[in-house]
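Lab notebook, bench 4. Still working through the backlog of constructs that have no structural model yet. Next entry is a single chain of 145 residues. Request: give me the structure tokens for it.
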Amino acid sequence: MLFHVDAPVDPTIPPPEAPRSDGASAVSVDALPVARPGATAPPRPVAHATTPSPGPTRGVSEREVTHLVELRRVAVTDAAAAVELARAGHAEFPRGMLYPEREAILNDALRRSGRPDEARAHAALFVERYPTHTATPRMRSLVDP
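Model written out:
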């Protein structure tokens, strides 16, 4: 860049900054690294969570999970109580993510409590509503023995 020594100084342009007094030296622009075309930056490290995410799966309330855990516990020893608890869960969580699991437990509890006709009706609806659920083959065997 060429400067005219005789050029007038514009008073609105501030003078260049004085050299830094903190000991840092200035670096010439020519000394900076140049990016080559096609060169890529090294991969950045990915931040990973250090703790598992708390609580149940997204879309499932903690209350619904707690209810299902209790239903499974009760279903092991008391089929009649499991029927009532499953129906209470259906009423409380009519669109809950765990509805199919409750329904499968309800079906087993109905069969074990001597109500095969109700179990068969529930199984038919289950197969229709949840054709890809893991309990569907078992439910289908109740509908089409």
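Notes after review: Residues 62-77 form the longest helix (16 residues). DSSP finds five helices and no strands in the chain. Flag for follow-up if needed.
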